[in-house]
Amino acid sequence: MAFIKILFNAVADPRLFFLLAVAGLALVVWKREHVASNTIGYGGLGILGAFFVFGTFDPYFRLIVTKPDNVPIVGLIFMLVFFVWFSIREGVLNDRRIAAGQGPIEKAEADRVWVWPDLVYTELISLILCSVILIVWSIFLKAPLEQPANPANTPNPSKAPWYFLGLQEMLVYFDPWLAGVVLPSLIIVGLICIPYIDKNPKGNGYYTFTERRAEITIFLFGFAVLWSSLIVLGTFLRGPNWNFFGPFEFWDIHKLAALNNVNLSEYVWVRTLRTGLPSNWFIREIFGIILVLFYILALPVILAKAWFKGYYEKMGGPRYYVGAFLFLMMMALPIKMLARWLFNLKYIVSIGEYFFNI
Amino acid sequence: MAETKTVAPKQSGLERFWNWLTETQAWTSIFRHGRPTTDRNRVLVMLSNVFLHLHPVRIRKSGVKLRYTWCMGGMSFFLFLSLTLTGLLLMFYYRPTLEYAYTDIVGLREHVPLGIMREMHRWGAHAMVITVWLHMFRVFMTGSYKPPREFNWSVGVVMLVLTLLLSFTGYLLPWDQLAIWAITVGSNMARATPFLGHEGPGASLLRLGDVPLIHAQDDARFALLGGTFVGEAALLRFYVLHCVGLPLGIAVLMAVHFWRVRKDGGISGPL
Question: Is residue B27 part of a domain?
Fold first, then answer.
C-alpha cells in the first residue's frame, strides 16, 4: 500500500504529470479507434473512481480533496475525462459513417421535430434534475467559511479561486505581467479569433475527428492539457510556498525545494564566455532579446516556408500569421516549462530595471 | 331501422375539471390557443408565449438529442437564473461593509434553520463555470463556431469572461480569510499590467520629468480595488459589480447570444 502511494506521489511530480498528460493526449488522438469503445471509456472512468475511493482512505489525500471548494474540481475531473472521451467517440463513429458514404449521424437526423413537446420536455427534465442535484449538493456540503478576513495574517499557500489556478501555476514559469495579464488576455483574444482563423469548411455542425485533426488536437492540448490539468495540479498538488506535494504527502510547511534557477544571460556571459555580466542591460540581455524576437517574428516566417507550408497556402498570409502568433504564444508555456526542468532556466530576457522579464 | 346512439367516452373527474378549467374566461385570456396536441396549437404555443418564443417552432432532430448538445448551454442559463434568485435572497441579509459582511454570513449560517441559499449560490456558481466550459467544448467539438456562427462564438467568449468575473467578484463577499487572500492573489496580477501597473514593464517610462504617472495610488490595481489593498472600497466595488454591473452585462449578451442562435439558422447541424 505504501509503495503504491509512493508511486503515485512520484508520478504526480509536475514534470512527469505534464509529460504524462501530453502522452495521454497523443495516445487518445493516435489510438482513437480503440479509445472509442465503451470498455475504454467507462473502464477509464471506473479506474479514476477507484483511485479516488482508494485515496480517501489516506488522511492527507482526504484533507485536500474534501475541502468544500475543491469538490467541484473532483467533479470537473470526471466530467472532463468523460466528455473528452465521449466527443472523441462521437467523432470516430461519425468518421466511420462518413468513410462508408453515409454522412454523419447528424445528417440523418436533419428532419424537424416539434419543439413542443420534444425540446420543451427535455428542458423541463434537465431543469428538474439540475435543481435536484444542486439542492442535494447544498444540503450535504456546507459552503466554506474560514476565520474573518485579517490582512495581517497571510495563509500559506494563498490560492486564487480554483478556475484561476492554472494561471497561478504559470507564475512558476513566467512573471506576473505575462502569466497574469498578457497570456490570459491572449487566451481570450485567441478564443475569439478561432472562427476567423479556422478556414476549414468541413466538420461544421457534427462530431468528427478526421476532417479536423489539427484543430481538435490543438484545442485539446490547450483546454485539457494546459488549462485543465494545470488547474488540477495547482489545486491538489501545490502546497505551502507553492511547493509540489504528492497526493498522499503531508503539506509540510518546512519542505525545502532546491531553487538554483539561472538566467540565460548568466549561461552565456558567465558560464560560456567566462566573463562578468555586462553592466549595460541591453548588451547583457542581447542574446535573450534576439532569441525572443526570433521566436515571435522570424519563426512564423520560417515555419510558413517549411513545416506549415500547407497551412500558409490554405489560410493566406494574415490568417496564418495571426494563427501562428497565437499558437507560438500557447507553446511558450510548455517550452518555458521544459527549459526550466532541463536547464534550470529562470529568465530568457531579464531586465529587472524595467520589470521586464521573460 | 334502429337508431344508433353516440356514446360519449367516459371522462374522469380530473379530465372534466381540466376541460372546465381550460374553458374559463381567465384561462382563455392567458392562453389564446387550445392544448398543444394538434400541429396548429403546437405552433401557437411557441408563438404566443414570450418565454417559449426564444425557441423556434420546429427544430432539427439532432438538436434535441443529449448526445449532440449535452444540454450544457441550457444548464448554464438555468444556473444563471437560479443564481439570480438565490443571490436576490442573499442580498436581503448581507451588508457589504467591514463591520457586517462577515457577521451577516455567520448569521446566515447559524440563525437560518435548514438554510441552503448560500450553499446553492456557491455551488451553483462553481457548477456554472464548469457548464460554461463544457458548453464551449461541445461547441468546439461539433465545429459549431464555423460560419455563419463566428460572431456568436465571440459573444460566448465574452460571456465566459463575465462568468469568471462574476464568480471572482462574488468570492470576496463572505469577507473571510479564504475570500480576501484569493482576491489579493488575483488582483496582485493587475499591478504587473504593462504600462498601466506600477510594477509592470514600461510603467516607469510614463513620467513627466521626475513625476511618475503610474504609481501604486493610480494604477490598474488601484482602479480594480479602489485602494492599494483589499479593503472596504474593494468590498463595495466587488459587491456592486457582482450584484448589478456584471449581471446586467451578461444578461444583455445572453439576449444577443440566444437571438443570434435563431438568426444564424438555429442549432448547428451539417449543412
Answer: no
Quick one: what percent of chain A has pLDDT higher than 70?
100
A42 and A171 fall within a common domain: no
What average pLDDT does this structure show over B203-214? 87
Can you give the pLDDT at residue A289?
Answer: 93
Q: Is B223 a domain residue?
A: yes
CA A322 to each of CA A72, A180, A221, B11, B256: distance values in angstroms, whole numbers, following the listed order: 35, 22, 19, 69, 27
Which range (A148-162, A270-284, B102-116) has the least confidence? A270-284
Domain that holds residue B249: 65-263
Give the structural domain span for A340: 161-198+259-358
What DSSP designation does A294 have? I
Residue A293 near chain B (CB below 8 Å): no
The 8 Å CB, 24+ separation contacts for A76-79 are A76/A228, A76/A231, A76/B130, A77/A48, A77/A232, A78/A45, A78/A48, A78/A49, A79/B130, A79/B134
Statement to judge: residues A214 and A188 lie in one domain:
no
Position B2 scores a pLDDT of 60
Q: Is residue A124 part of a domain?
A: no
Question: Length of chain B, please?
Answer: 271
Domain count of the fold of chain A: 2
State whether residue A186 sits within 8 Å of chain B by CB. Answer: no
Instruction: Give the CATH number, domain containing residue B242.
Output: 1.20.810.10
Residue A114 pairs with which residues in a beta bridge?
Answer: B58
Q: Is residue A357 classed as helix, strand or coil in its secondary structure?
A: strand
> Which residues 167-226 of B have a C-beta within 8 angstroms of A?
167-168, 171, 174-182, 184-186, 188-194, 197, 199-205
Most confidently modeled range among B79-88, B197-206, B209-218, B260-269: B79-88
| Contact present, A259 and A251 (Cβ < 8 Å) | no
Interface membership of B112 toward A (CB under 8 Å): no
What is the ipTM score, two decimals?
Answer: 0.94
Mean of pLDDT values over A199-213: 93
Provide mean pLDDT across the span A78-94: 95
Query: What mean pLDDT comes out for the span A316-338?
Result: 93
If asked whether residues A317 and A358 sit together in one domain, one would say yes
| Number of separate domains in chain B | 1
Which CA distances in Å does A243 have to A168, A239, B209? 13, 5, 43
- Whether A185 and A316 map to the same domain: the answer is yes
Judged by a CB distance cut-off of 8 A, whether residue A142 touches chain B is yes
- Are B55 and A109 a contacting pair at CB < 8 A? no
Residue of A274 and B259 predicted with greater confidence: B259
